[in-house]
Structure formats: C-alpha cells, structure tokens
Design goal:
The protein is α+β, with helices and mostly antiparallel strands and 330 residues long. 32% of the residues lie in helices and 23% in strands. The chain has ten helices and 13 strands. It starts with 24 loop residues before the first helix and ends with a strand. The structure holds cobalt (II) ion (2 copies).
Length: 330
C-alpha cells in the first residue's frame, strides 16, 4: 500500500489496526487445543476459557492477576497510540475486578525506518495513562521489528471473593455495556483516509476503572472487556464458558458517532467480518438486521468497554443472559 511509504502515517506500517490485528478466534483456539498450562490448586483462572487475565492465589484474600496486550499502530498519532495501547492493556485487569499495581512496556520498533523520537512519544502516552491508573511502569522489553508494536504486560491484584470471571455468568441477569461500539469501523476509516476521530480516541484512552469498581460494588460475578473479538465474540465466549445463552436487544446497543455512516460508506474492517463469521453458527437473528448491522455488532474494538453480567448505574442494559445457549438478537 502506498500509504506505507509515508513516514508520518504510523497506521501505514500496520497490517491490521489495534485489536483487529489479533489472531482470529477460531485459529487461535485450534492452535492451542491440547496444550495445557501448569496446573496448581492456586490457579483460580488459567488457560481454560480464555479469560481476560490469569488469577493465581497468593494468600487466602489475595490473588495476582497477570495479562498482556500489544498491537500495531491503531492511529497515526504516536502519543495517542501509546495511550490507547496502555488503556487497553490495563483493561483486562479491570475486567477481572482487580486493581493494576505494576506494568512493563513491550515494544517492537523499526529503528532504521521510524525516528526514535516517535517511540518516545508512544512511551510517553503509555506512561501518562498508566499514571492516571496509578500503575507504575517499572521496566519493559524492546526489539527491532519491521512492524511497530506497543503494549504492556500488567500485574494486578484482586480479592478472590470479588473476582469477575468469564465462566461465572448466571442466566436471567441483565447485560450492561459500558462503552459504545464501532471504534473498529472508525479506526479502519482513519487508517484508509487519514481522517482523525477525536471522540474515538477519547473513548479508547478512557480507563475501565470506574466501570469495574461499580461492577464490583454491585456484586457482579462475571464480566469481560470488549476488544478484538467484538461484542458478539466476547459475549459468545462468556456464554460458552458459563454454559448459558444470551439475548441482545440490537436497538439498545450504544454506537459511537459516525460508525453507522462509515459502515454504510464501505469502511468495514476485515477482523469484524471474521468475528461475525466465527459467531454466526451460534447466532439467531430475529431482528430485521442487514449483514452490515450484524458486522457492526461484531466490530473488533480496541480498548472497548466492559460487558457486565449485571446492572451498573449510568450504563445501558443491552440484553440479558438466558438458560439456553447461543445468542439471540432481537
Ligand atoms: Co480482555
Ligand atoms: Co487481552
């Protein structure tokens, strides 16, 4: 792509933007099938259900959460990319009901192609968001890499009694979503046209801390964050892990401004389509929705909100869990 020649456009160096550069869900599951991690009675959450972070008990009232996330440039602005990547990496700790306590930077940088000053901006963005989260960045690792990558490995703590798991969702509870979806579509448009969407950046750098604390305070047992597999993908994963189903009220799902229009104008991320294809066998669509509206429900999010099994004040309820299986869209 010609864009890749322009050193001012970071997204031109990325084959896929943000969490949309994740390995597709089905492929990843095939690759790790049959591999088991180390088993120990101290492992509260391990590899089994692809939860947001692992949880290992170190004391009766304390578990350590470990998670890592990194990706290619999702926006052209280096500082914003750093902020988004950090907020996204921290999010998995919040999705477990925990508090981040320490983070390490992970960097891949094409040092002969991109100026190191740009890397400084990326890292400054990450540091600023980590500081906002009161999470010290205490080190990291970097490699020379033809494709720039940035993210963090984050360690957190949680009271095991307050752990929010993917496999603990009960039927008959409301589903709450704490950020609008559709940033994948806007990121795709940004990558292709260079148009900047400040409101999308503002949403992606926003921490899920308050949403997490509200969920824990409400006694929520199950939650996840909506990232690369999209709303439908992450909901399906949580339902499958918990052995339940869900109903989504499509008209209640909040959409970020401009996503619908951009979708109509043809800005459709490939990752979002793949997400929909992956979930489709488990989907019953009762609402009169077109294919593109379904793609939007599966849109690959970067640093998306929390999907909470329960109700938290100030955020929309988008459906409910059921005793069945699969996802029904009304
Ligand atoms: Co997650
Ligand atoms: Co993650």
């Amino acid at each position: 792509m010609a864009i890749a020649q322009d050193p001012a456009r970071l997204t031109g160096y990325a084959h896929g933007g943000g969490c949309a550069c994740k390995i597709p869900p089905g492929e990843l599951e095939d690759a790790v099938r049959g591999l088991v991690g180390q088993t120990s009675p101290r492992v509260l959450v391990g590899l089994d259900d692809g939860d947001d972070a692992s949880a290992v008990l170190v004391r009766d009232d304390l578990a350590i959460l470990s998670t890592t996330d990194f990706f290619t440039p999702v926006v052209d602005d280096a500082y914003d990319w750093g902020r988004i990547a950090a907020a996204n990496a921290l999010s998995d700790i919040y999705a477990m009901g925990g508090t981040p306590i320490s983070a390490l930077n992970l960097v891949g940088w094409p040092r002969e192609v991109l100026p190191m000053e740009l890397l400084t901006e990326v890292l400054r963005g990450g540091l600023d968001v980590a500081a906002e989260a009161d999470c010290p960045v205490t080190g990291g690792h970097s490699i020379d890499d033809p494709e720039p990558k940035y993210g963090m490995a984050v360690t957190g703590v949680v009271d095991p009694a307050q752990l929010m798991r993917n496999d603990a969702a009960e039927p008959g509870l409301p589903l709450t979503l704490t950020k609008p979806i559709g940033v994948g579509v806007l990121n795709n448009r940004h990558k292709r046209t260079g148009e900047v969407f400040d409101h999308a950046v503002a949403q992606m750098v926003q921490l899920n801390r308050e949403a997490s604390q509200a969920a824990v305070a409400a006694g929520v047992r199950a939650a996840t964050d909506v990232t690369g597999f999209g709303l439908l993908g992450h909901l399906y994963k949580m339902c499958r892990a918990s052995g339940i189903g869900a109903v989504i009220d499509a008209s209640a799902v909040p959409l970020i401004d401009g996503a619908k229009r951009s979708l109509d104008e043809g800005f459709i991320p490939g990752g979002s389509r793949r997400n929909l294809d992956w979930v489709r066998p488990h989907l019953r669509v009762e609402a009169p929705l077109g294919e593109e509206e379904l793609v939007l429900l599966a849109d690959a999010q970067t640093s998306g909100g929390l999907l909470v099994v329960g109700e938290i004040p100030g955020h929309p309820v988008i459906g409910e869990t059921t005793a069945g299986s699969g996802i029904t869209i009304r």
